[in-house]
Amino acid sequence: xxxxxxxxxxxxxxxxxxxxxxxxxxxxxxxxxxxxxxxxxxxxxxxxxxxxxxxxxxxxxxxxxxxxxxxxxxxxxxxxxxxxxxxxxxxxxxxxxxxxxxxxxxxxxxxxxxxxxxxxxxxxxxxxxxxxxxxxxxxxxxxxxxxxxxxxxxxxxxxxxxxxxxxxxxxxxxxxxxxxxxxxxxxxxxxxxxxxxxxxxxxxxxxxxxxxxxxxxxxxxxxxxxxxxxxxxxxxxxxxxxxxxxxxxxxxxxxxxxxxxxxxxxxxxxxxxxxxxxxxxxxxxxxxxxxxxxxxxxxxxxxxxxxxxxxxxxxxxxxxxxxxxxxxxxxxxxxxxxxxxxxxxxxxxxxxxxxxxxxxxxxxxxxxxxxxxxxxxxxxxxxxxxxxxxxxxxxxxxxxxxxxxxxxxxxxxxxxxxxxxxxxxxxxxxxxxxxxxxxxxxxxxxxxxxxxxxxxxxxxxxxxxxxxxxxxxxxxxxxxxxxxxxxxxxxxxxxxxxxxxxxxxxxxxxxxxxxxxxxxxxxxxxxxxxxxxxxxxxxxxxxxxxxxxxxxxxxxxxxxxxxxxxxxxxxxxxxxxxxxxxxxxxxxxxxxxxxxxxxxxxxxxxxxxxxxxxxxxxxxxxxxxxxxxxxxxxxxxxxxxxxxxxxxxxxxxxxxxxxxxxxxxxxxxxxxxxxxxxxxxxxxxxxxxxxxxxxxxxxxxxxxxxxxxxxxxxxxxxxxxxxxxxxxxxxxxxxxxxxxxxxxxxxxxxxxxxxxxxxxxxxxxxxxxxxxxxxxxxxxxxxxxxxxxxxxxxxxxxxxxxxxxxxxxxxxxxxxxxxxxxxxxxxxxxxxxxxxxxxxxxxxxxxxxxxxxxxxxxxxxxxxxxx
Length: 867
Fold this sequence. Notes:
Blueprint: E1 47-52, E2 55-60, E3 68-74, H1 81-95, E4 98-102, H2 105-110, E5 125-128, H3 135-146, E6 158-159, E7 165-171, E8 176-178, E9 184-189, E10 195-197, H4 214-218, E11 231-240, E12 243-250, E13 256-263, H5 275-289, E14 298-304, E15 307-313, E16 318-319, H6 320-327, H7 342-368, E17 371-372, E18 381-383, E19 389-391, E20 398-399, H8 421-436, H9 449-460, H10 465-474, H11 494-512, H12 540-549, H13 555-568, H14 586-592, H15 596-609, H16 623-636, H17 643-662, H18 675-689, H19 692-706, E21 709-713, E22 717-722, E23 728-729, H20 736-745, H21 754-763, H22 778-791, H23 797-813, E24 816-818, E25 821-823, H24 840-851
Helix pairs in contact: 7-8, 9-10, 11-23, 11-24, 12-14, 12-24, 14-15, 16-17, 16-18, 17-18, 17-19, 18-19, 18-20, 20-22, 22-23, 22-24
């Protein structure tokens, strides 16, 4: 699960790991996890300790870290953490070396968990040598102290023998440079003094200018396992910190298999079972269930290197989750201005009922064999070519009488306090609801969300009262539990409900902004990045701008925002200066708040610091966005940008797009990160600079982006952007909504053709999805329809409004009140968000623009419309 670490500290919002304090009294299912502060012992005189994220950094007073070098990482087992930290402290105190360690025991558990970052998980202690320390002697001395300890391997490091001592050449303090695409990344300096990326990968790496210490090779351990290969890996099906799941073939028999990996000493769950413990349990459970025919056949279980592997026969087909995404008529529909047709809903619900009936029989057979599955969700169920179901990924399964099972499964598919067969019964009902409406994670922090989803599914798919009542009962809801109450054309006027929803969003958003916090709004985990927190997409700037569109910025927020910007001005330079994902978007926000002087100073800083040749290309964080911003400043804010700078920026965007179009590999696509955004920037530049090259290249770019779309037949023809993997995308960031916005904003300079336009627009109108937000959620399609309605005469305005009424009803149904206020689900709906890209600020901007309460909705990109 992405962002798992950021869900630990707060049940409602994403939060950095360092804010987590495990409360065993409130979370008894987590009580076995070691928790509380880690203590390194008393500090010697003239030493000090400081908090930095989840770490405690200890160093002599006045200590200056070397810029980079071979630092040591120690990765002990949880039970050894106290001793390893105190030994490290004594060793470093004697030598005057700085070190850091995780501040709390629960952080050590989390950062070696199943969903921890793979490249660095297991790391508990870091020791920094001085600039004049011999790396080999330094590492050998640590090995002498810790060579007898065992723990997980840190994948991106060199490991000394089989010990907990690892090393990697890298920067000792956070420094930033650019990657190959121009995006800001952590960096170090090569022998010539040039800034280069500081890679954190899955394999150890020695920079070309550095010398690997000989002790690494001297202590290298020979890998254990078979003398010769038995399997050939074809592809990776899934990856986590505990290992991969691979599709493979047996070299001798040719049998197609799945290899599931469990890395040693990783992934302890809430019951402290390791990944290898769970893999052995899965092997045994699958063998017990073999007579039921519900699971693939187990073929092998072996050790290779630092991992155990389970081999079982490959089950062809798709997951139940993938099946629903390909068949749900509220997701893929030919008539987005109408209710889902009764026939389409009946066909889909008949299939859902058939699969759920089969799943119920499979689960009953497992219970009959004495097994409870625990972690039942659609990604763990395979639909075979013959429509039969198979269970996969049974690492959470346990004996039916095991009351100690504490595996925490997928969010929304388990019920607190429910275990044993009853947990699986709840899981079956949750799976059924998910197939209709894949928003279950929101029910974790919106108490009324489950009833709202049941009602939404019943209304959308024409399910009868008996189904609604039965689903509520199976999910433990009362008949009177309130649902969403949102109806299109029902007794509650949608427009009245929409006006109330906009008011609630506005009030809630204004109350959540706190500039005393490092992260002033509840945001996506992306917003915790050094540069993203100052941007419109994930920072406070986007929330303030959205409030300005409805003229509801509280005076406190306006004042504090200006003070906050002034305090951080010195941080704003050539890196992270994008329109949406960097600090430059604050030019638009400041101008909209009426602070012309602050906006002018920020614009001067942007023009002076922008590196046109090195910046990324896209709109979100790169040159295309900077060009659009400069053109906006010139036409909307009376902020001067010289024609010379505009021409230089436009020339560079045009050159890059032409280079992308000449490549054999697929170009980046989308309004915010790809060709259509660059095309829009070039078209705007053509209007100001009258250079025909820009317009020609813009049209070629949109033609190339359109070529990435594939046809999907529903009741009518649809076109979806295909990313050449497994997804078809219809989002604002990448996909239909963004392409439609770019075309509409170009005032007729490019048109995809009547039939193609309609096929693109239909596909942008999903009523269900995994999140309601703007960039990669339902609100992006609503915004695209609003732009088409207010900028063009390509499609009937009433038709577009009817499409948006259905999308708006979904957005309202997929939100609600939690313990701390009103919530809009954010990234993957795992937690609520107030940011512009994923949360309430973006939803507010889109809804207000469509209803006429706002004159613009995408800062610096889409022009204002005056009623």
